[in-house]
Design a protein that fits this description.
694 residues, mainly alpha, ABC transporter involved in vitamin B12 uptake, BtuC, 29 helices, 0% strand, globular
């Protein structure tokens, strides 16, 4: 009797059999997808090879030259694509499972950016002489980035906080990487293309070294599969079943970083594979419940990741041709696909997916309103700005004295002083006006969307404006300032329209759509740069960093006019903005047209961002920091917030330009990189503070 009962318990239930069959069918389909696309992948190249010829070559029955092509060129690329896709897919799946966050991935947690930064530092110092050594550097960098994100957001971060913290950290680390590339051009040759996710391989040695590492990490994650199953029930439930929650979480995190580091060591960062592959599997769980088992989920995510990378590489070479397609990083296409996929996920996720703040909940007005103290704050900020402007004219690769500046004002300076000041003056004016415009733009967007995280840089508006400008710079031999400005304006307006259409539900959706737009714009920009000639490529890369190098008076005229228009408009609408920042009901009661006010201020923000981007390049965080600091100091009345925001935005960019010119003189750093390096930690501090207060 006992034997019969045991045999019945061991037998698969009727309900489990269809689920298991569905999992088997899905696995077979994924394997067929990978196999077919791998064959197509091998046939692509400068030499046309048929499937029959490849089959003979692989088994040693073909022409020796064909065998050499396959073994020395195409097989390493195929193996690299398969390894990297599988590693990133499984790493993303493990991160999503251990954090119970559907948007966790090596890209959204900054792990990839951290690994790439440390590899760049090693290359600049001549330390990454072998694949194994490079892997150790990448692993260390990725682990440090993951530790920073966990320290800021906590181990169970909500979706919005994780994505924002990861995006800000990625911006900061990428800016530091760009600085190192600019300062060590000779030592880091080829790192720009490789940093966008290039599958080009110099032999099979690098891939062969990383395959055992990735295999060990993958097996380790599969061993933890049962614990991950229980973790999906919650920490308390998992602990009641005997799961050591903390050690399991950290072990899975380390193994995920190992997989990510192995992938980046081989090909550089390939964007969004770690997000898309597991997300695709999650979308199928309602039809295939067996995917909820973590070992199945991890395995199918790995297969999907390999299929995505292989398909992207095949599509890239199909679009641009076998020869030109080889030189374009596959990460460009995966980033575009990932950006679209992130927008789709943002639309599907439930409303209010993150515990975001609102303008009304922000701490504000630490300066007492008595006796005009808040007005004195604005005056003090203006004095600081004047001091910064004078310092900007005096400091640089050649240091001037106040007497030199006085003599120049009187027209009796030496020719050398005349030349230096006349060279610096447009740059200083560009930094002043760009900071003012970006501060205003950030304030407008934050107020009308009631989203304190709505910076034009973080939401992809600046990057989209940059796409338009870079397209003109790289595709035209001598574009005029007007054409560059119009192209940047079109890019910014397109981004804002998409934000309003696709992210109108709440600030959670708005931020996710903005992050996706920024990632997609960055990928398109990289594609334009790679396909450009070296002269335009260097010019555009410098400009993209937020540079005042080539600023001219003609470029600043539209910026000055738009700032003047913005000031005139806000003099009339400042009271409208005061009530718009809280809700939609109060403005209606007071006779304020919400839709008209939003249209006016969003349009102004787009024009200001485009003008600033066309004049000095892409800047992030200025439109976030300046309004936040202004509200913190003087409260939420826009009669005080607007002028202080303008002054603080100008101070940020002017001081960043001074540091960029003086820190490594005579080498000069773009001011936008300096702002990102400083602004990202401030943004992370805001997230940390909000978490502590919550």
């Amino acid at each position: 009797m006992k034997t019969q009962t045991a045999s019945r318990a061991d037998a698969p239930s009727p309900a489990r059999t269809p689920q298991r069959n569905r999992v088997i069918i899905l696995t077979v389909l994924l394997l067929v997808w990978v196999g077919v696309i791998a064959v197509v992948h091998l046939t692509q190249g400068s030499a046309d090879l048929s499937v029959a010829t490849l089959w003979k070559a692989l088994w040693g029955n073909g022409i020796s030259q064909t065998s050499d092509i396959v073994l020395s060129s195409r097989l390493p690329r195929l193996l690299a694509a398969t390894l990297v896709g599988a590693a990133l897919g499984m790493a993303g799946a493990a991160l999503q499972s251990v954090t119970r966050n559907p948007l966790a991935s090596p890209e959204t947690t900054g792990v990839g950016a951290g690994a790439y930064l440390v590899l760049t530092i090693a290359a600049a110092c001549g330390l990454s002489s072998s694949t194994g050594v490079g892997f150790l550097f990448a692993f260390g960098g990725g682990l440090c980035a993951a530790a920073v994100i966990l320290g800021i957001t906590g181990q169970k971060a909500d979706v919005l906080r994780l994505v924002l913290a990861g995006s800000a950290l990625t911006m900061a680390l990428s800016s530091i990487t760009s600085v190192i590339l600019l300062l060590n051009t000779w030592q880091t040759q080829g790192m720009f293309v490789w940093g966008s996710g290039s599958l080009a391989q110099n032999g099979i040695g690098g891939v062969a070294t990383m395959i055992p590492v990735a295999a060990v990490a993958a097996c380790g994650l599969l061993v933890y599969g049962r614990r991950l199953d229980l973790l999906q029930l919650g920490d308390d439930a998992a602990a009641s079943y005997g799961v050591p929650v903390t050690s399991t979480r950290y072990s899975v995190l380390v193994l995920s970083v190992l997989l990510t580091a192995a992938a980046i060591t081989v090909t550089g960062p390939i964007g969004f594979v770690g997000l898309c592959a597991p997300a695709l599997m999650r979308l199928l769980t309602h039809r295939i419940p067996g995917l909820r088992r973590q070992r199945v989920f991890l395995s199918t995510a790995a297969l999907t990741g390999a299929a995505l990378v292989l398909t992207s590489d095949v599509a890239l070479r199909g679009i641009f041709g076998a020869v030109k397609g080889i030189g374009i990083p596959t990460g460009v296409l995966t980033s575009v696909i990932g950006a679209v996929f992130l927008i789709v996920l943002a639309r599907r996720l439930p409303r209010g997916g993150g515990r975001g703040e609102s303008i009304a909940s922000l701490r504000a007005g630490i300066v007492s309103p008595e006796h005009g103290a808040r007005t004195l704050v604005i005056v003090a900020a203006a004095v600081v700005l004047v001091v910064a402007l004078v310092a900007a004219l005096l400091l640089g690769d050649r240091i001037l004295l106040l007497g030199d500046l006085w003599n120049w004002c009187r027209g009796v300076a030496s020719p050398r002083v005349d030349l230096i000041i006349e060279t610096r003056l447009p740059r200083v004016a560009g930094a002043l006006l760009a900071g003012t415009a970006l501060g205003m733009a950030g304030l407008f967007v934050q107020t009308v969307t009631r989203n304190p995280l709505a910076d034009p840089g973080i939401l992809g508006v600046s990057s989209s404006a940059g796409v338009g400008a870079v397209a003109v710079i790289t595709l035209s031999s001598a574009p005029s300032d007007l054409v560059i400005y119009l192209a940047a304006t079109i890019g910014a307006l397109v981004a804002l329209v998409l934000l309003l259409l696709l992210g109108r539900k709440d600030q959670f959706q708005l931020v996710l759509v903005g992050v996706a737009l920024g990632a997609g714009a960055g990928a398109v920009t990289t594609l334009l740069l790679i396909r450009s000639d070296p002269w335009n490529q260097s010019r555009a890369m410098t400009w993209l960093g937020g540079s005042t190098y080539s600023t001219t008076g003609a470029q600043l005229v539209p910026l000055l006019v738009l700032i003047a228009i913005g000031v005139v408009v806000t003099i009339r609408t400042r009271r409208d903005l005061d009530v718009l920042q809280f809700d939609d009901t109060t403005p209606h009661v007071l006779g304020v047209s919400v839709q008209r006010s939003r249209l006016i201020h969003i349009g102004l923000a787009a024009l200001l961002t485009a003008a600033a981007t066309a004049a000095v390049g892409v800047f992030a965080f200025v439109g976030l920091i300046a309004p936040h600091a202004a509200r913190l100091l003087v409260g939420k009345r826009h009669a005080l917030v607007i002028p202080l925001t303008m002054v603080l935005g100008a101070i940020i960019v002017v001081v960043a330009d001074i540091l960029g010119r003086a820190l490594f003189a005579p080498t000069q750093l773009p001011a936008g990189l300096v702002v990102a390096i400083v602004g990202a930690p401030y943004f992370l501090f805001l997230l940390k503070s909000a978490k502590s207060e919550g």
